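New to this. Help decode both lines:
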Amino acid sequence: MFKHFKNIETAFRHVRLFSFVVIGASTAICGYTLLESYRMVTAAQQRIYILSNGKAMEALAADRRDNVPVEARDHIKTFHQYFFSLDPDEKIIARNIGQALYLADGTAKQQYDDLTESGYYAGIISGNVSQQLETDSITVDLGSYPYYFRFYGKQKMIRPTVTVSRSLLTDGYLRNVGRSDNNPHGFLIERWRILENKDLDIQKR
């Protein structure tokens, strides 16, 4: 009789232990499944599809802080390309300068007005001059805000008889603004100055 009860008690312990093991394993599996599902959903949400020329291309979303140096340098490069890459055509000049002025404050507009008053753009048109810009380097100090930058480049002015190479050194500051179609990087150039712009080389054509 007592042996029978003892067997029942032992069996109950085994069943209880087995139940705890099953419950623990089920809880662990459920927790792992939920965690993996969360990771998969998060990864899927960071996929962006961009439609370009009828083709869908995949991109990855990232925190802007990870891309600030790259976006800042590209913003500065784009501004200088628009401002200094010109052809002897009023519409091209107006289009490029218009795009550049979306990326900077009134200091760029002041530079444009000064060049216009001095007859610079009229000289490009009348002299059939094409002006190209080559970027050497761009430094951006992200240690303080607004971000100070320096742009180093070379201008190539192609005239009917000669090609003139000129150095170009500018500086200024970047501050954050809202992104738009005209300003996709969300920066604005402030206190922009041309520090150096002198002839380096003249070659006959």
Q: What stands out?
A: The helical segments are 2-45, 64-84, 90-101, 106-117, 120-126. The chain has five helices and seven strands.
